Amino acid sequence: MDPLPAPPVAPAVTVPASGPAAAAAARTIIDIDHVDFFYGPSQALHDISLRLDEKKVTAFIGPSGCGKSTLLRCLNRMNDLIDGTRVARGSIKIRGINIHDPAVDVIELRKRVGMVFQKSNPFPKSIYENITFGLRLQGVKDKGRLDAVVEKSLRGAALWDEVKDRLHTSGLGLSGGQQQRLCIARAIAVEPDIILMDEPCSALDPISTSKVEELIHELKREFTIVIVTHNMQQAARCSDQTAFFYLGKLIEFAETRTIFMNPTNPQTEAYVSGRFG
Amino acid sequence: MKRFFDAELETFRSHLVLMGETSIRQVRDAIRALVDADISLADRVIAADDEVDRLEIKIDDEAIRYMNLRSPVATELRFVIVGMKASHDLERVGDEASNIAKRAVKLAAEPPLKPYVDIPRMGSIALEMLRDALDCFLHTDAEKAIAVIKRDSEVDAINRQLYRELTSFMIERPGNISRAIELMFISKSIERIADHATNIAEEMVFLAQARDIRHTDELKKSGTE
Predict the structure, then answer these.
(1) Which of B1, B64, B69 is facing A237, going by the closest CB pair?
(2) Which residue in B1, B64, B71 is closest to A233 by CB distance?
(3) Is the ipTM of this complex over 0.85?
(4) Of the given ranges (A157-161, B98-102, B202-206), which has the lowest mean pLDDT?
(5) Are B153 and B194 in contact (CB under 8 A)?
(6) pTM for this one?
(7) Counting runs of H as helices and runs of E as strands, what totals does chain B give?
(8) What are the distances in angstroms from CA B42 to CA A222, B37, B92, B169?
(9) Burial class (CB in 10 A: 0-12, 13-18, 19+), B165
């Protein structure tokens, strides 16, 4: 049984709408409900509740140690890989399915919820094999299909034109920015619903950064994106909604424009103005 | 390299151009309504002021949004700031055109005090100044902007001359007073429109060269008397 079935015709959870247009436009895909999270004895997240809309870019911002990456890694259970971690309370639902339900296959979850890390981490294999790795694991052998996926993913990651003549050379031979886009291509090759990005540009130069930002803007047509960033200008440029975290608590969540123009909470204002953090 | 938000800047620019065109048309029509005693044209000028006001709000909103989310720097930052300031000047131009149109309606009920020669002449200089200043939004040109600033004194001179002339009309015959006062206000409105064109031109020098030339004597000295 598919642990994360396709969305039902009627949305499982709908965002309280302010009008008919809002009801049509926004649909919750990730529903985080009163989550407490611990690394051993120390509590990293306190009572986090957050609903993220489908096909939107949401930025998580906040000073180091505020819990934003922890929360991001909760969304595809990457924290399971660290001993002693636990979600002590609350639930995280993706398309209405509790991801901690024993019936959920974690591998399948991570296929649906892809991830791009701060440091690009291509496999020490060819560009082609990097992209097709996930599909081969799933047993796909049809060369025509694999070729098509490679082209589609690399085009989707705005990398095709730069690498189409050297698909069978090592992914490690690419520049830092290209490697990061290769990782994005690899993430989208398995057609996830959601892409998590943990500081995807912090190791990149400004030109590569702006290419990735362009890409994020393109990708949101098809995917829901959650991005953790320390770069506030990047959050402002790329995201539709922004969540500000501090000391493991969600301080404010709103439209990005509101967070950067008229935040409700003085701590958010102080952080986005660079006065603390 | 193109960026996904470049289109926002182009929309902003096109709204500025539209606002500029609308206010230029308002000024031109207001003066024509006066000269031709055309009340319906004057009414249309007054009605168009709402459109200019709406554009001002839209432009402000776009500029604030752009500065808030896109972190513009260098030329782009100057462009957004200058665009916002110019839109306030254009809104005032629209108000002045509307004032002229309202006075044109009053004056249309009476025979003209004198043939309208100086006011249309003054108006066409102010309009040329406005157009040249606004052209810099499309093609940044500090020289053209400086030429606009230098022409402000031409308009000031006609305004002073008209003031003297209209004063003498009033002294000659008290029956002329109400019409002469209306014309004095119209002349003053046109003079103000030229001032707004000058402000916009000064902003355009800032846009082109990042140099603030306001409240300095360097241009006035070389200006025509």
Answers:
(1) B69
(2) B71
(3) no
(4) A157-161
(5) no
(6) 0.81
(7) 7, 0
(8) 53, 9, 17, 25
(9) middle
